């Protein structure tokens, strides 16, 4: 190893770290801190010292004019699935935690990650475009703190394998020499005996580790219907490659394989491996419109389908492969079980921030399904050796391995035993265990948590965190975003169609629902709420929301929430005092769900805002259910309407009552005046305790009266023996509504048919 003194000979430093990285098949990190132009010059010295060919170097920077491959920081995701020998990340402009995580993962074993930063002591105080995105109105960029970068700097100064060069002072703060943690080589891949093997031998020969070979063997279960395979791995372990080898093997035998993932780019490695294997087997027949539709001999096919459509497509295919499953909501994961055979592949720890979300939120439902489930786990890194310091640093710096307390420490937690506390960013930075537990719960609360969320938690002025702890351990957390309190110019900008960051409810109310005054009251939106999986359904979440309500009652006008609507979630928020004020009219591209907005007033101004939007919602929902929401799940519609705090009144004319009575108690027809049936049905669905209807009768109201589905489709969906039976059931469903809501004249009309 080359010994270095205080002279910042970056070329020699890079040569030494590159030699060490190659010898261990690990990676090393070099930080060049100081003036930006000096940093770029020093980065060129590092490339020379590392003796890396130009075509193996990438500069991630907003600057232009390099002879090397260049990627803008906001396009760092384009490096996913690629490997580079040396990557330079310019953190002087457009730097983000997401970009750091994505860039680090692209460096191959034996390679270098070079980070260009401002002077480390002053970096946390600098503000850039990322900070501007955190400064949501009414806050300014001066309100954003630099805690995330301060924590990042501290990890750079004490983590093994990190070299620090202070360009301004001309010194090497740390040389980054590191030879500890080098493990023995991973066991070679195992090729099963011919008698055991279902997939081609070539597929096993393409595996790079024994772990990958074992995962491929587990994926052979996809050749049989009624099976499910779960493949879990940290990032960089070859999970997607194994899935691609399995998909190619199935297609080579003539199978139709559907692949889905949160986005096409997430599935790129699956398709690359599948296509390569089919080519090696001589079974590749060609591609479709793009690289995500591969045809094979014997009618085999590997094709990408977006998550929303994958359940239906998988049901008609031979197998479904789901990559990055933890980044998809449970409702979609459940729909994938319609496929004859399905593989769920997911990252446990990676820049996606998936954590243990898949295991906690979906695994119990998979185990309850009528499936033979096979598990596989990949631990051996593919691109670099175990003990890699760059991997451990990114895990630490970005909290990719954050997790809640172990089950045993919180299993006895109850609403009565828990303590409510505010967790300020300073509290979190002062206690690493507290930070990791709280952020670990937030990761599990949502299917798309990313490193930028850590920066937001520590630095964004509009966010605040509240928690319940049990014996010092975090058992429930709520992340709150302050919204509203906007000035007239900002409100006018929203009303005219401009977007305002970080104010979801005021934005929807103003721009979509045409309420320019909606941005005046101050609210706190519950962005995420999570309870430890070991003590879920024990009342801790409700206790936390109750404490939040009590704390903010004097400081805010309302509490709000927006989420992908499901019956259980709508009921949970209704039980905690929140009322429905809006349903989105488009589905979320990833979750496939319509979003619900709900509010709980805390002041007269908040009550006025809630009441008028609840009233407007009731005024339009009947029409919307028959149009944009005609495919909304009937139980979601029931739960959303039951959660409206203002019950609708039927307000039927005497003539309309005669029509309704005639169709329910007599020989009349619903089609004579469907609007009357809709208004009476709305009165019931917004106050379902007032009259007794069975759930199937309420679904019948939603599907036929509100969503105007054809009678035969309604009868089939709700399991009526015939359309005539469904028609009679609708009339029967309106009898108790006539009894409860009918006027004296309506009741007199009813007596004519008794």
TrEMBL record:
<feature type="binding site">
    <location>
        <begin position="529"/>
        <end position="531"/>
    </location>
    <ligand>
        <name>acetyl-CoA</name>
    </ligand>
</feature>
<keyword id="KW-0819">tRNA processing</keyword>
<dbReference type="InterPro" id="IPR007807">
    <property type="entry name" value="TcmA/NAT10_helicase"/>
</dbReference>
<dbReference type="InterPro" id="IPR027417">
    <property type="entry name" value="P-loop_NTPase"/>
</dbReference>
<dbReference type="Pfam" id="PF05127">
    <property type="entry name" value="NAT10_TcmA_helicase"/>
</dbReference>
<comment type="similarity">
    <text>Belongs to the TmcA family.</text>
</comment>
<dbReference type="GO" id="GO:0002101">
    <property type="term" value="P:tRNA wobble cytosine modification"/>
</dbReference>
<dbReference type="GO" id="GO:0005737">
    <property type="term" value="C:cytoplasm"/>
</dbReference>
<dbReference type="Pfam" id="PF08351">
    <property type="entry name" value="TmcA_N"/>
</dbReference>
<keyword id="KW-0820">tRNA-binding</keyword>
<dbReference type="GO" id="GO:0005524">
    <property type="term" value="F:ATP binding"/>
</dbReference>
<feature type="binding site">
    <location>
        <position position="383"/>
    </location>
    <ligand>
        <name>ATP</name>
    </ligand>
</feature>
<keyword id="KW-0808">Transferase</keyword>
<keyword id="KW-0067">ATP-binding</keyword>
<dbReference type="GO" id="GO:0000049">
    <property type="term" value="F:tRNA binding"/>
</dbReference>
<dbReference type="InterPro" id="IPR024914">
    <property type="entry name" value="tRNA_acetyltr_TmcA"/>
</dbReference>
<feature type="domain" description="TcmA/NAT10 helicase">
    <location>
        <begin position="230"/>
        <end position="401"/>
    </location>
</feature>
<feature type="domain" description="N-acetyltransferase">
    <location>
        <begin position="440"/>
        <end position="553"/>
    </location>
</feature>
<dbReference type="InterPro" id="IPR013562">
    <property type="entry name" value="TmcA/NAT10_N"/>
</dbReference>
<dbReference type="GO" id="GO:1904812">
    <property type="term" value="P:rRNA acetylation involved in maturation of SSU-rRNA"/>
</dbReference>
<comment type="function">
    <text>Catalyzes the formation of N(4)-acetylcytidine (ac(4)C) at the wobble position of tRNA(Met), by using acetyl-CoA as an acetyl donor and ATP (or GTP).</text>
</comment>
<dbReference type="InterPro" id="IPR032672">
    <property type="entry name" value="TmcA/NAT10/Kre33"/>
</dbReference>
<protein>
    <recommendedName>
        <fullName>tRNA(Met) cytidine acetyltransferase TmcA</fullName>
        <ecNumber>2.3.1.193</ecNumber>
    </recommendedName>
</protein>
<keyword id="KW-0963">Cytoplasm</keyword>
<dbReference type="GO" id="GO:1990883">
    <property type="term" value="F:18S rRNA cytidine N-acetyltransferase activity"/>
</dbReference>
<keyword id="KW-0694">RNA-binding</keyword>
<dbReference type="GO" id="GO:0051392">
    <property type="term" value="F:tRNA cytidine N4-acetyltransferase activity"/>
</dbReference>
<dbReference type="InterPro" id="IPR016181">
    <property type="entry name" value="Acyl_CoA_acyltransferase"/>
</dbReference>
<keyword id="KW-0012">Acyltransferase</keyword>
<dbReference type="GO" id="GO:0051391">
    <property type="term" value="P:tRNA acetylation"/>
</dbReference>
<dbReference type="Pfam" id="PF13718">
    <property type="entry name" value="GNAT_acetyltr_2"/>
</dbReference>
<dbReference type="InterPro" id="IPR053477">
    <property type="entry name" value="tRNA_Cytidine_AcTrnsfr"/>
</dbReference>
<feature type="binding site">
    <location>
        <position position="212"/>
    </location>
    <ligand>
        <name>ATP</name>
    </ligand>
</feature>
<dbReference type="InterPro" id="IPR000182">
    <property type="entry name" value="GNAT_dom"/>
</dbReference>
<feature type="domain" description="TmcA/NAT10 N-terminal">
    <location>
        <begin position="19"/>
        <end position="166"/>
    </location>
</feature>
<keyword id="KW-0547">Nucleotide-binding</keyword>
């Amino acid at each position: 190893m080359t010994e270095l003194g205080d002279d910042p000979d970056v070329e020699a430093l890079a040569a030494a770290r590159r030699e060490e990285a190659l010898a261990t098949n690990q990676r090393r990190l070099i930080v060049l801190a100081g003036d930006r132009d000096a940093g770029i010059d020093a980065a060129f010295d590092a490339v020379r010292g590392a003796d890396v060919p130009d075509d193996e170097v990438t500069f991630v920077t907003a600057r232009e004019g390099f002879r090397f491959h260049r990627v803008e920081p906001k396009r760092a995701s384009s490096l996913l699935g690629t490997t580079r020998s040396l990557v330079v990340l310019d953190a002087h402009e457009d730097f983000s935690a997401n970009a750091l995580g994505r860039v680090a993962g692209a460096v191959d074993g034996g390679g270098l990650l070079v980070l260009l930063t401002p002077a480390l002591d002053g970096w946390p105080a600098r503000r850039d475009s990322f900070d501007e995105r955190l400064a949501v109105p009414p806050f300014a960029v001066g309100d954003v703190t630099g805690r995330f970068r301060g924590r990042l700097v501290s990890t750079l100064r004490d983590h093994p394998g990190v070299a620090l060069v202070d360009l301004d002072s001309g010194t090497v703060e740390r040389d980054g020499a590191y030879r500890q943690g080098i493990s023995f080589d991973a066991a070679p891949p195992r090729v099963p005996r011919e008698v055991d093997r279902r997939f081609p031998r070539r597929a096993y020969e393409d595996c790079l580790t024994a772990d990958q070979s074992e995962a491929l063997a587990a994926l052979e279960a996809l050749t049989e219907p009624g099976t499910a395979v779960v493949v879990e791995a940290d990032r960089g372990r070859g999970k997607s490659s194994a899935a691609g080898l399995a998909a190619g093997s199935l297609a080579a035998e003539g199978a139709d394989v559907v692949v889905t993932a949160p986005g096409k780019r997430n599935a790129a490695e699956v398709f690359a491996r599948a296509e390569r294997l089919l080519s090696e087997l001589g079974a590749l027949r060609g591609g479709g419109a793009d690289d995500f539709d591969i045809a094979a001999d014997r009618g085999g096919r590997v094709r990408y389908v977006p998550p929303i459509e994958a359940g239906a497509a998988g049901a008609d295919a031979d197998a479904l492969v789901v990559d990055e499953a933890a980044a998809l909501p449970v409702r979609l994961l459940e729909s994938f079980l319609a496929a004859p055979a399905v593989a769920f592949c997911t990252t446990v720890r990676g820049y996606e921030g998936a954590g243990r979300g898949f295991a906690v939120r979906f695994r119990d439902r998979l185990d309850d399904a009528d499936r033979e489930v096979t598990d596989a786990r990949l631990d051996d890194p593919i691109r670099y050796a175990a003990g890699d310091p760059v991997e451990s640093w990114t895990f630490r710096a970005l909290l990719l391995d954050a997790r809640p307390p172990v089950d045993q420490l919180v299993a006895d937690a109850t609403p009565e035993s828990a303590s409510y506390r505010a967790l300020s960013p300073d509290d979190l930075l002062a206690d690493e265990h507290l930070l990791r537990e709280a952020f670990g719960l937030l990761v599990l609360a949502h299917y798309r948590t990313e490193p930028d969320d850590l920066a937001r938690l520590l630095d964004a002025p509009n966010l605040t965190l509240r928690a319940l702890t049990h014996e010092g351990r975090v058992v429930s957390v709520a992340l709150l975003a302050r919204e509203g309190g906007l000035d007239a110019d900002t409100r006018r900008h929203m009303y005219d169609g401009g977007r305002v960051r970080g104010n979801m409810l005021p934005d929807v109310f103003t721009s979509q629902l045409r309420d320019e005054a909606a941005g005046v009251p101050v609210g706190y939106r519950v962005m995420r709420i999570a309870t430890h999986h070991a003590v879920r359904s024990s009342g801790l979440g409700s206790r936390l929301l109750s404490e939040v309500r009590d704390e903010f009652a004097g400081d805010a006008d309302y509490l709000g929430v927006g989420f992908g609507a499901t019956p259980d979630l709508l009921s949970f928020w209704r039980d905690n005092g929140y009322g429905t004020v809006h349903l989105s009219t488009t589905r979320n591209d990833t979750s496939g769900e319509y979003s619900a907005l709900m509010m709980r007033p805390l002041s007269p101004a908040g009550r006025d805002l809630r009441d008028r939007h609840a009233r407007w919602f009731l005024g339009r929902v009947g029409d919307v259910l028959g149009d944009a929401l005609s495919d909304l799940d009937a139980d979601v519609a029931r739960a959303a309407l039951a959660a409206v705090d203002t019950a609708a009144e039927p307000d039927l004319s005497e003539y309309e009552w005669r029509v309704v009575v005639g169709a329910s108690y007599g020989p009349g027809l619903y089609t004579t005046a469907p609007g009357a049936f809709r208004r009476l049905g709305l009165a019931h669905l917004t106050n379902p305790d007032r009259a007794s209807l069975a759930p199937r009768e309420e679904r019948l109201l939603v599907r036929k009266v509100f969503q105007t589905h054809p009678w035969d489709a309604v009868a089939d969906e709700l399991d009526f023996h015939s359309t005539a039976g469904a028609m009679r059931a609708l009339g029967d469903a309106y009898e108790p509504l006539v009894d409860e809501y009918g006027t004296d004249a309506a009741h007199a009309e009813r007596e004519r048919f008794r």
